[in-house]
Amino acid sequence: MKILLINPPNSGKSIPEEAYGIRNIKMIFRGEPLSLEVVAGNLNGHEVCIADLKADPDALGDCYAALQPDVVGITGVTCEANAMLRIAAEVKGRSDPVVVVGGHHASCDPEYFNRAEVDYIVMGLGKLSFRELVDALEREGTDGDIAGVAKTDPGRLLSFRPRRYTTADLVDDAAPRYDLVEQHRDKYVMSGVGGKAGFVTTAFGCTHRCLFCSIPNMTGGRYLSHGVEAVLRDMRLLTDVPLIRLVDANTFGDAKIAEMLGRRIIAADLKKHIVADVRADTVVRHPELFRIWRQAGLAAAVIGFEEISDERLAQLNKRTEVATNVAAMAILKDLGIRIIGDFIIAPDYSAADFDRLEQFVESHDIDLPLPAILTPIPGTPLYEKWQAKITIHDLDYYTFTNAVIPTRMPEKEFYQAYSALLEKFIGHLKH
After folding, report:
1. Pair 278, 251: CB distance under 8 Å
2. Cα-Cα-Cα-Cα dihedral sign, residues 408, 414, 417, 419
3. Do 364 and 333 meet the contact criterion of CB atoms below 8 Å apart?
4. For the segment 222-250, what is each residue's pLDDT rounded down to a tens digit?
5. How is residue 9 annotated by DSSP?
């Protein structure tokens, strides 16, 4: 079959820009469409094309005309859900291919896509289930009964079998199709970290239950690790890329596997700089692990510090404390590993809260602080908790840079304070 996979364009909207002319807040996503490269890797025997509309907004027309696809797969996060539907309607109007949607929003809120322009919804990890769907369509002309895949039925609630994800869903023997976006490689960069970057995954999912996070929805709350050799293979495939971004929610979720991988990277002498996500409590429990990874090339660690008070961390069900975060920073700094710190700006922040966050960051020498606005993504515990408070329901604004519930401060002052914080933290990354 001929299969076109589509990464939607940057489509998020910005309240501070539209309402107040504040232009340094709008979120722009960069980086390759790894989820589509991974899915494509398990489609051997089929003709596959990836249209990355973030790298080339005009790619859809050329790719569609050249391929004339039988199946179109579209991925996206919450702020791209409306763009996904617009693309689905557009391709349906061209030659009526089978349209399949997947990704984070489809996994969190599949009913959102239960519409006429969509034929199937793939929830969670799609590498194996999408292949199973394609094979069923080719073999029988029907979907069969595939766990984790729903056939749309507009006007009625979706009916499908939940999928119990296992390491089989990772399909370790099928490498990502990095070659399908090679023409855009120079556009995949991490500003402020190391420039040109390639994406590799070592694991999927998370066993923690932070209120704001959509990642557990991808694997039913399980943590699944790729085999060490599969990760090394993928890193080697990115031959001309000096920086590897490991894009897992927690690369070190299984300390034993992480140690094996670190030692194998050292032995392989890949000579790559590495950026990876880690929980602060993992650093504190396993400092020796990070000595190994520093030797393996770990240049920067991304840590979700989120908040700077134990009370607010508990409210988010983060399962860590400020003292642990500070201790983790000390360990990483001692090893010469840069710290990229994710922080959450709650809509109920006061001017004093903004000041305290600024002072915390400056006093702890965090290399790249990244503050985002707490956003209730549909399908997360936070959404259930805040649903009655939400005043902005247009998903285009769910970019983590807009407050979709009322702010404690006057709204303009809130965004001005947020903008000023960004200027101080990441002014050199302005888009």
Report:
1. yes
2. positive
3. no
4. 999 999 999 999 999 999 899 999 998 88
5. P
What gap in Å lies between CA 4 and CA 213, rounded to an integer?
A: 29
Long-range contacts of 164-169 (CB under 8 A, 24+ apart): 164/220, 165/124, 165/125, 165/204, 165/205, 165/219, 165/220, 165/222, 165/224, 166/224, 167/224, 167/225, 168/128, 169/124, 169/125, 169/127, 169/128, 169/129, 169/224
* Measured distance between the N- and C-terminal CA atoms of the chain, rounded to whole angstroms: 39
Mean pLDDT of the chain: 93
Q: Six-digit token pair at 425?
A: 């933290």
Residue 105 predicted with pLDDT over 70? yes
For the structural domain made of 2-161, what CATH number should be given? 3.40.50.2300
Q: What is the pLDDT of residue 144?
A: 66
Amino acid identity of residue 50, one-letter, is I
CA angle at 73 for the pair 67 and 76, rounded to the nearest 5°: 130
Tell the CATH topology of 188-429.
Answer: TIM Barrel (3.20.20)
Domain boundaries, the chain: 2-161, 188-429
List, for residues 307-334, the tens digit of each pLDDT value.
999 999 999 999 999 999 999 999 999 9
Task: Identify any residues that bridge with 368 across adjacent strands, giving them in sequence order.
Answer: 340
Report yes or no: 263 and 234 within 8 Å, Cβ to Cβ.
no
Ordered strands of the 47-52 beta sheet: 47-52, 2-7, 71-74, 98-101, 120-122, 149-151
pLDDT beyond 70 at 391? yes
**Residue 7 DSSP one-character state:** E
CA gap 126, 420 in Å, rounded: 40
Distance of CA 252 to the CA centre of its chain: 17
- Decide which of 414 and 426 is more confident: 414
Cβ atoms of residues 174 and 39 within 8 Å: no
pLDDT for 430: 39
- pTM over 0.85? The answer is yes
